[in-house]
Amino acid sequence: MQTVEIAIPYTPREEFLALHNRSERWAAVVAHRRAGKTVACINELIKGALTCHLPNPRFAYVAPTFGQAKDVVWEYLKEFAGVIPGVTFHETELRADFPNGARVRLYSSDKYDRMRGVYFDGIVLDEYADMDPRAWTEVIRPALSDRKGWGVFIGTPKGRNGFWQIYDQATKQDNWLALVLKASETGLVDQAELEDAKRSMSADQYAQEYECSFQAAVVGAYYAQQMNRLEDDKRLGRVPWDSAAEVITAWDLGVGDSTAIWFMQAVGQERRIIDYYEGSGVGLDHYVKVVREKPYTYEQHILPHDVEVKEMSTGKSRKEFLEGLGLEVTVAPKLSIEDGINSVRNMLEACWFDAEKCERGIEALRHYRAEYDDKREVLRLRPVHDWSSHGADAFRYLAVGYKSNKADWSGWSQPNVKWVV
User: Fold this and answer.
1) C-alpha R_g of the chain
2) What's the N-to-C CA distance of the chain in angstroms?
3) What is the pTM of this model?
4) Which of 69, 327, 400, 420 could form a disulfide with 106, with the two C-beta atoms 3.0–4.6 Å apart?
5) Residue 177 CA from chain centroid, whole number
6) Span 345-360, pLDDT tens digits
7) Angle, alpha carbons 252-401-286 (nearest 5°)
8) Could you give the CA distance from residue 136 to residue 142 in angstroms, rounded to a whole number?
9) What are the residue boundaries of the structural domains of the chain, listed by start?
10) CATH superfamily of 14-209
11) Domain 224-401 belongs to what architecture?
């Protein structure tokens, strides 16, 4: 076999040599803004494509959205791989085919189902803090199993969410590289620029974006303070089901989208969140079956106000359909999102969560945040609609819709936290 020497126009920064030279299969890299992580990751994939000895190697870069992959990463891939003789680029698929049969393709995590059924020899998940965690556990990790491919998680912190969990895992387990690149330590951004950034950003923003702080409050995250306090108070842990108490469910119904259900018990002034379920691509009868198969005795099932809207095709509302399946429905009042968010903040002060059964729902509450206007540098009045919306909306219906004669809420209610935009 003839060996061909190819010079890629990339000089690795010293800070990323540990990533390029690692022997570990997995890597979690927490990098400050402008560190050059995207360029490093694209070249890591190109190196993998050129050096993999398995037949038809497959490598992938995953961004939170297709737009992010196309607008930034695609140009880098063409720039650095374009010097390779015989490489071809497929614009519609954001794919580069190499002369040795290897491929590097760009994907988005918001459409992670498109990666089902394929295999990967190596993959980079960029800005993993913005991704639906199920993309990794349900699709990407299995796609690496056949050929024992490697994975790199890289990004900037956004609170103690899924990326924090991955990094925490990397610091504790063998076969993981854990790397933190802080602007104050790398010298990749000059001091004058850092000082100017400090003057134009809040302390939390600067700590998050430039000093890689997982503890800094996420900009626009509605429930970050409450969820951090729950964790500090050890109220995210094991919360057993009490068979003597009835269970309340709260639903967010997706149309061609995910449906989320919370399961709560009100015991005295405690709100025990004992379970969570989320699914997609199935009918309402599936969720009724899920609820019935659990061993719980139910007090009420809370659904959003639009459950009463009649569908054109059937002339029946989803409320009527669910009641036809034997589910007694309580319709949550129609309140503004702001009022609902404040209700959730108040309710969280009395909550205990089962961390294992409610893991995805807890992640949704941590991640749920307001849209940020980059041009005006202000938070918008509406939340970001992403994977976390379903769990967060269902919990909002729980907070505004639960009423019981069995419990007195007045004893623990605290003043509303102001919603700053």
Assistant:
1) 24
2) 63
3) 0.72
4) 69
5) 21
6) 999 999 999 999 999 9
7) 30
8) 8
9) 14-209, 224-401
10) P-loop containing nucleotide triphosphate hydrolases (3.40.50.300)
11) 2-Layer Sandwich (3.30)
How crowded is residue 20: how many other Cβ atoms within 10 Å of its Cβ? 13
CA–CA gap between residue 103 and residue 88 (Å, rounded): 10
Q: Which amino acid is at 298?
A: Y
Q: What angle do CA 302, 307, 310 make, to 5 degrees?
A: 155
**HEC string for the chain:** CCCCCCCCCCCCCHHHHHHHCCCCCEEEEEECCCCCHHHHHHHHHHHHHHHCCCCCCEEEEEECCHHHHHHHHHHHHHHHHCCCCCCEEECCCCEEECCCCCEEEEEEHHHHHHHCCCCCCEEEEECHHHCCCHHHHHHHHHHCCCCCCEEEEEECCCCCCHHHHHHHHHHHCCCEEEEEECHHHHCCCCHHHHHHHHHHCCHHHHHHHCCCCCCCCCCCECCHHHHHHHHHCCCEECCCCCCCCCEEEEEECCCCCCEEEEEEEEECCEEEEEEEEEECCCCHHHHHHHHHHCCCCEEEEEECHHHHCECCCCCCEHHHHHHHCCCCEEECCCCCHHHHHHHHHHHHCCEEEECCCCHHHHHHHHHCEEEEECCCCEEEEEECCCCCHHHHHHHHHHHHHCCCCCCCCCCCCCCCCCCCC
Q: What residues have CB less than 8 Å from 190, skipping those under 6 apart? A: none
Q: Give the pLDDT confidence of 55-105 residue by residue, as tens digits.
A: 999 999 999 999 989 998 999 999 999 999 999 999 999 999 999 999 999
- The answer to whether residues 289 and 279 touch, using CB atoms and an 8 Å cutoff, is no
C-alpha to C-alpha distances, 204 to 66, 109, 216, 418, nearest whole angstrom: 28, 27, 5, 18
Backbone angles phi, psi at 265, to 5 degrees: -120, 130
Helix 359-367 with 389-401: angle, nearest 10 deg: 90
